[in-house]
């Protein structure tokens, strides 16, 4: 369903070609600083970057229709709405009949039938990540009162990979000054080239995003099933195009020995710390006080300007499909702020469920 | 919390050193064939294999205490109980003070306080996967009535990797005849050696499990947040030692071009099929009718017989810890049937939530 | 929280003095006829009636911002928004300090603190029933496709009671032509007098609403905890001013003998029917195929134009409070359509949870 | 489903004629005093009283199989099991064909089909209230650490009504010394006679239970939908034979004027109190600090030893049914401790959801 969270809850609605899209955030305590401006800032970070993104102009101006009064949350549900400016959906109707490879068209038509509103990808559209970003701003505002910070950045585009194990403060906020959300100017250059090369070849390319979270209380996460890593993974996989999620060493840990992978404990200024962070901040489904460290794999954009084989569900014959329009040759730079938002939504819910943040006075 | 599922629901209870462990499965329709024998068969597949597993004898005999009558489910909750035979927990009390690297001891003590029952790992113990396996048998029995089948096997141990893209029928049921749950005798040999080498060196080793699911209806999965991949990932991360989950090409897709990664459609005997399965059977959070294909990364067993650095939470000083007892040098072979079970629990819940299986007549 | 339902789900937001109020309805299948017009019709039935209601002009014009296309639902969440026209909230600030007897002011201030947005009653305002009515229209539209119909009417105002056991067709739709929602012109006259008398005496009066539901499948309701009567009661108590809920004979059954109260079975045109309906259509938490018959008790409006004793939370002394403004001397006539709506929301959710209505094709 | 609660959660299982019945209580913090003995004490209060109850011997000995160590909860799920001693279910098979008036037989057969395990009433049996009582003891033990106390008693049997507005301390614990759970010896006498008269006439009789809760924090209850009265009503209606629930004046309030019904505020030893408690401790879905005061209506026992008309679902003809066996002529005395338990389960969940009780250290 279109609702996530038990104690801090987000509901999304809308589709890319109706009147608009939006969300309702429920459970946020009163008294948190929140304004349309700080939401707008993150929404702007989700817009396509010049040169490497789709030139379609989506302004995504947010309206706050409830839950905030005089710049502060008031404890009741926060509703935000983003009007759709550009609603030319004529080109989408064909996809019900000749489903686009790599898109949700085919399973959606089987599930919902030919009456399904497939325009703009319907509910499965990347556009639905805009209200998630808006909701994520509320979560980040709430969590910042507890000293919890999030930083995501592009770790790889295609085969160009950032091999550094960067700290949060190294990347926080800064990467949004670079079109690819890379962690250095050199990587920006190389990643940008990787994207432009794919674009020039009429193709697209994937990549990975890393997200670091600092300031979590030790023990955050609910056993047995509502673990911190499990809940994060659940919501990260809801982002379109995500194909893998890992924590700490992740898949790399499967090739390691226990003596290498175990993070040993010591004291640092009276606090328990581990000398390495192979666990990515998670043990037994709970935070262990080290930075949470996760990576998300994005597949290459499915919409490419090449002719592709598909089926014609009307005639029962095979067909060729050429997708018109301008699409992002790489979704990863726009997804960075989405990964941050989604991570914040999960952490906010776990913090409130666990009683680390009180609902009320 | 210790409950998973909206329409097909499992609740686990117990810990490794109390009277026993068990589960309650709620929501299973009446009339499904189920007996203690078929549950026992899977529980036995979770037992350590001779030579490469811990020699601790856990018989894990299941008792069905409700929900089944004359070999069939009756529609009311199914409760299963496994008595604990071996309850020597004396050695665990030390871990509250000197937490084991790589285990949940430290976050658990912070979360639950020193009164926490840490014996045998408490709720975070691998032993809690036994009731999951039992519940998974109910899910598999239910789903088999709809032609849905699950097969998991060991894809890698340490650096020994099975490079074949095997089909379900190639591995189904057969791998349980091999101690490592490898897909071929040759791989059994090499993986077994990898485990024994680690063991001899007083170390442990990780690995990956692949799970294939066939027979899913096209469109299974609930947008936007309760996707098939997201729900599977959530529950897979609840298995102790899991550090990564990917579908289809997974992290590999992040290095691919769209033209390579997109699975194109064609007809096969009147059914829509894709020529490749890079998507691993999932598009837009829904099954697309191709086999579901997922991989899970397990870290090496945290308990190793070498002395490790840790902290003494009592004195506030650093300490050395040597973990006594016999532990599995590699958890992966025992985890294969757990991955199958957990996948089946998720699919059963989605099938019932989506109305593909009716609760009642 | 502000969300109800597992499979057919409503989330409400807004408060009486912010920009507006609204709801998101999730889970409604595609293809159901729905337009702003039919929603508006029920919203108008919630408006105060001339003479006996508050003269405050609330137009409550609904906007549908997502989920409907060309007069039909499209399967994605339906968002509806009602702008607040009249937002004079100056008079409410005093109630944080001198809480109104019979209102939620005092517990709300303790729960949410003095920063709480108490204007217009905040989340506890009767105004929040407007989005419930809007959501209820979606539920009724969905359920009408299965032949399920709802009819509510005013059964009593103060001591004026309708002693007839009326059938659904006798009251359906017709009562909205009478200002008190009474079932006959004579009762309209007497109930209207009861309200006007209270009003003239500077007082208010309570009453009861009866709701009848026909067309339910036998067996609707989820044991053990999600019973049809329990779920209805839960949501009915969420309507402000409700103090009691009963089914069939209700409290009267407690004085009866089993031989009187048991409804015996017989066949009627091949269908199993009971000769009486003391059970109100519910047995063991499930519908039994007879009309569902429930009654809801509303207390008299708490806001009365007389001076009342209260406390001054600022000075810690006792105080007198006179509530300005024009309030409904009796809330019952406006609540009739709310009871209908709330009943429809619960039944829609149970129908979808139980698989009686499929989410998808 | 068979699970209730978001943060303090109970799952029940079993049926009256399988191996046994039981429950799992999840979410209870560690360190709460709990032993089989105090659970047994409440289970014994649910047993039929000599002379006025069924003579069937159900010993209901509870076993605690997890979650408690050395007399204290350990934070993991608490499982309790009650073996069924008496399983003679032969007489129940007939009821699938000739459903008992007033019982769930008919809707259950339609819902679950003829394969349904109807023995002993299946899941709809009053016997399933035994695990609820056991779970309620855990809730009461937890809440007593916060000074919250529950007291229920029989307010009426048939037409014999206790007209006193008794305080909690007047009835607490004492009523269990009387067979009818009446609040005075005189009422015990009169209520006992009422039951015995019905019994002698081959009939049964209903009644009401009142429950008082003291010590609740002001503001307990979650707006808009998870109100304290709504959640209590939901679970109270899950008790077999309940037909009505009301708070404070309840249905009586519908006949009152606002000036009578409003509870005015004053200070008492520095605390805000109301001079009357017509609201029954609930305003706007939240506790207001006054004692919570609720009443529950029970219909007369459906099983009576007189021949009753019913249908034969096999032949499609009408039939006469005479129910053999010894049944309680009045269920109310046994239901008193069940109402207490169910109220405690709801309050425990709301206390934990609202953050009034922390899950962890």
Provide an overview of this structure:
The structure is a homotetramer of 361-residue chains. Chain A is α+β, with helices and mostly antiparallel strands and 361 residues long. Chain A is 25% helix and 23% strand. Chain A is built from eight helices and 18 strands. The first copy, chain A, has helices spanning 36-45, 105-112, 129-144, 168-171, 185-200, 228-236, 258-261, 332-353, and strands at residues 3-4, 9-14, 20-26, 62-66, 68-69, 72-73, 78-83, 149-157, 160-161, 207-214, 242-247, 265-268, 271-274, 282-283, 286-287, 292-298, 308-312, 317-321. Chain A has a five-stranded antiparallel β-sheet, with helices on one face. In chain A, a hairpin with a 2-residue loop joins strand 12 and strand 13 (271-274). The longest helix of chain A is centred in the last third of the chain and has 22 residues, at 332-353. The two termini of chain A are 31 Å apart. At the A-B interface, strand 1, helix 2, helix 6, strand 11 and helix 7 of A face strand 1, helix 2, helix 6, strand 11 and helix 7 of B. Strand 11 (242-247) of chain A pairs antiparallel with strand 11 of chain B.
Keywords:
homotetramer, 361 residues, alpha+beta, 5-stranded antiparallel sheet, 18 strands
Give a quick precis of the structure.
With 361 residues, the first copy, chain A, is an alpha+beta fold.
């Amino acid at each position: 369903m279109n609702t996530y969270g038990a104690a801090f809850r987000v509901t999304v609605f809308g589709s890319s070609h109706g009147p608009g899209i939006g969300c309702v955030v429920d459970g946020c305590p009163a008294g948190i600083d929140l304004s349309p401006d700080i939401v707008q800032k993150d929404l702007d970070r989700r817009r396509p970057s010049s040169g490497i993104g789709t030139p379609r102009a989506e302004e995504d101006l947010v309206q706050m229709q409830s839950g905030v009064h005089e710049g502060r949350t008031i404890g009741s549900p926060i509703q935000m709405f983003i009007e759709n400016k550009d609603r030319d959906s004529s080109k989408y109707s064909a996809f019900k009949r000749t489903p686009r490879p790599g898109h949700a068209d085919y399973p959606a038509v089987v599930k919902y039938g030919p009456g399904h509103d497939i325009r703009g990808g319907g509910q499965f559209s990347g556009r639905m990540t805009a209200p998630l970003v808006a909701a994520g701003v509320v979560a980040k505002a709430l969590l910042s009162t507890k000293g919890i910070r999030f930083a995501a950045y592009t770790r790889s585009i295609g085969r160009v990979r950032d091999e550094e194990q960067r700290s949060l403060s190294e990347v926080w906020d800064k990467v949004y000054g670079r079109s690819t959300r890379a962690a250095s100017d050199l990587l920006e250059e190389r990643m940008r080239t990787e994207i432009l090369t794919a674009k020039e070849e009429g193709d697209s390319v994937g990549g990975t995003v890393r997200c670091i979270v600092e300031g979590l209380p030790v023990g955050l996460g609910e056993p047995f099933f509502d673990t911190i890593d499990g809940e994060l993974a659940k919501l990260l996989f809801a982002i379109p195009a995500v194909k893998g999620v890992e924590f700490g060493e992740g898949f790399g840990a499967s090739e390691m020995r226990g003596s290498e992978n175990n993070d040993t404990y010591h004291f640092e200024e009276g606090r328990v710390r581990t000398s390495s962070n192979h666990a990515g901040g998670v043990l037994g489904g709970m935070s262990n006080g080290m930075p949470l460290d996760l990576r998300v794999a994005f597949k290459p954009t499915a919409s490419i300007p090449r002719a592709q084989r598909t089926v014609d569900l009307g005639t029962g014959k095979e067909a060729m499909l050429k997708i018109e329009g301008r699409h992002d040759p790489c979704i990863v730079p726009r997804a960075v702020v989405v990964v941050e938002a989604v991570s914040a939504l999960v952490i906010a819910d776990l913090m409130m469920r666990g009683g680390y943040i009180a609902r009320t006075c």
